[in-house]
Amino acid sequence: MIDHSDDARDDALSALLRASAPDKFGAGFADRVLTRVRAEEASLAATLQRQFVRIVPLAAAAALLLASLNWWNARSAHTSAIDAALNLPQVSIATAYASTAYYDNPDAPIGMP
Amino acid sequence: MTDPMPDDELLIRARKGDERAFAALVERYEGAVAATAIGMLGPGGDADDVGQETFIRFHRSLDRFRGESSLKTYLVHIAMNLSLNALRSRRRTFLRFGGGDEDLAGTPEPGVGPAGETDAAELKRIVQQAVAALSEKHRAVVVLRMFQDLSTREAAGMLGVPEGTVLSRLSRAMQELETRLSPYVRDGFLPTHVETTR
Fold first, then answer.
1. Does residue B152 sit in the same domain as residue B181?
2. Is residue B1 part of a domain?
3. How many structural domains does chain B have?
4. Domain ends where: B42, B70, B97?
5. Shortest CA distance to A37 belongs to which of B4, B18, B177, B133?
6. Is A75 on the interface with B (CB under 8 A)?
7. How confident is the model at residue A103 (pLDDT cuts 50, 70, 90)?
8. Is B172 part of any domain?
9. What value of ipTM does the predicted structure carry?
10. CB under 8 A, 24+ apart: contacts of B64-69
11. pLDDT, tens digit, for every residue of B142-186?
12. In terms of domains, do B138 and B166 share one?
């Protein structure tokens, strides 16, 4: 004879367990999560802002130093101050058309075809 | 009454920064995460922290969630990992300071009495206490298979053990629970209010 009482007991225990699962945290759980999400986003933005503020003066100082060096090196050439600071090569129509000469001889300085 | 917005739609909105859509997802899956965290850690601050952290991590990975598994399975997986970490941390604290945290194994035995004399909330508390008294490994299997209704394969994948191990742990856990809860589950008798509480 098959004893079905064990199966029935197992089913009843399973049902009891399923019915007894915790189904919520304390009141206001979603609000607590959103508060933490907002705090995390705010702290990320603040971190990026702090990094930006820290880097900007250094980057500006480096750019100014480089521009000054460029200008100093090119002070004797007849170039504008901006071209000198940015170390822009002198380009003319003639040098532009002479690009093949440049590619044939990459060592040739730009502006000196 | 309008149909609730599907998960996919809420996810799209949440990814665009819609806070209400994310809150709707939190409310929708609070139960699944609570069943895992509270089932593993017991009610209290630790479980609440794990629940919050689960959703914070989910928020961080909104763009990476591709829906390979259901959202519920994804969240339960995070909650289970965090709960196991919290239990490890509890153990370390316990070993280092010789106490200082509640040892779940020391949870008092649930009070026994005829099912008819126990109301729904009390019965729920007794069952949760009985689950809390199981070993960590057995508890994890009961939480995933019984509380979350996951398949044996899903539970095995989540816990990183073979399916046979899940089945044997579940069998032992159910035997233990049957002993502890026998006054409430006698010969298939189930208190009438159980089926209506969830």
1. yes
2. no
3. 2
4. B97
5. B18
6. no
7. low
8. yes
9. 0.76
10. B65/B11, B67/B8, B67/B11
11. 999 999 999 999 999 999 999 999 999 999 999 999 988 888 876
12. yes
Chain B hits for A36, Cβ within 8 Å: 52, 56
Distance to chain A for B60, nearest Cα, Å: 9
Query: Inter-chain contact A25–B35, Cβ cutoff 8 Å?
Result: no
B88 plus B121 within the same structural domain: no
B47 vs A: CB within 8 A = yes
Pairwise CB contact (< 8 Å): B188 & A8: yes
The neighbour count for residue A12, using CB atoms within 10 Å, is: 21
B27: contact with A, CB 8 A cutoff: yes
Domain final position from B97, B126, B152:
B97
Q: How far apart are CA B124 and CA A16, in angstroms?
A: 8
| Radius of gyration of the CA atoms of chain A, in A | 37
The helix-helix angle for B71-97 and B45-60 (nearest 10°) equals 130
* Total Cβ atoms within 10 A of residue A5: 11
For chain A, the structural domain boundaries read 74-113
Put simply, the answer to whether B34 touches A8 (Cβ < 8 Å) is: no
Record: contact A30-B23, CB cut-off 8 A: yes
CB contact under 8 A, B48 and A5: no
Q: Does A5 touch chain B (CB under 8 A)?
A: yes
Contact assessment for residue B138 and residue B103, using Cβ atoms and an 8 Å cutoff: no
Chain B residues within 8 A of A30 when measuring between CB atoms:
23, 26-27, 30
Query: Which range of residues forms the domain containing residue B52?
Result: 7-97
Say yes or no: A39 contacts chain B, CB-CB below 8 A. Answer: no
Q: What is the mean pLDDT of residues A87-101?
A: 72
Residue B2 counted as domain residue: no
Q: What pTM was computed for the model? A: 0.69
Instruction: Please give chain B's pLDDT, 198 residues, in tens.
Output: 566 889 999 999 999 889 999 999 999 999 999 999 999 998 888 999 999 999 999 998 888 888 788 999 999 999 999 999 999 888 877 777 765 444 444 444 444 445 455 678 888 889 999 999 999 999 999 999 999 999 999 999 999 999 999 999 999 999 999 988 888 876 444 555 454 444
